[in-house]
Amino acid sequence: RRNGTEGASLLSLNPSDDQDPVPFSASDSDQISVEMARMRTKKAMMQLRQTRDLEKLKRVLTDVGQGRAEPVPNSTPKKDHAQGSQIKTRVEEVARFSSQGLRDMELLSDQRTVVKLGSEELASFAVFSSQCSEGVSTWKIRINRQTGIQFIGLLEEPFDPETGFARNLATRAWMVASYGYVCRTGSGGHVPLTEEAKAQAGDQSVGALSFEPESVVTITFDREAGEAEIQIDEVAPFTLKGIDSSARPFVNMVAPQDSVSLLSDNPADDPERPETVTEVREPNNGARRLTEAELQKIREEADKFWS
Asked: pLDDT, tens digit, for every residue of 3-22?
């Protein structure tokens, strides 16, 4: 509670008051009761608060009229993870793999699990999630089985070629490989981004950004910013930039029966891990399954990117 002197000083800052309720001072004590003095002081302070509230309301209305927005007191706007005070729309969806253009892949668990069948020797692509032009999406990809190279990232459609390792795309894409290689692709070939990504993650060791069975790769795509933050398990995330807002997430797998699943925010709703993956189909058009020796050769090719 303020004393009489403080009240008089504060009221002097509000000369526009209709009344000038000078609060009780020590010299009044011989003329009025202490109770009356308290009532007068309380009235003065109430008028002071009302005056301040009125002035604040005037400022708010002026800001609104001029197109400026002032946050409502005691409210905290939801902030995007990468944009400070700028509010972003988060895209809420149950992500599923698209069956359109799917080759040598089989979809399970309501299209939330994809399995490489192996009737074609080349790696296959599986694109997932609906296509959006704005907002922020987050996807979590669990590696169920991995015996060959896998790529996970974002690409622009249509992509070319439609089969083969993702790092050989002639169209624009951004990705991380199971052996820890990070790159972007385009008409000029693929551009390594591994060292930059490892620097962001704070780990320069070989294979620092690799993933394996049971790993979870998390992608957060801010379409307006054109940036995708990728995190592998508990390793610090790294960010890939310059991504078109129309890009869609994908996985690229080569080894028969390798599989991944899309997770949700509720673990109880996550797809079960396939105990026995769908039987590999017989080769078509003279194609055959990869032998263990051929798979080993692929792994050795991947090792070259580590050095």
From this structure: 444 333 333 333 333 333 34
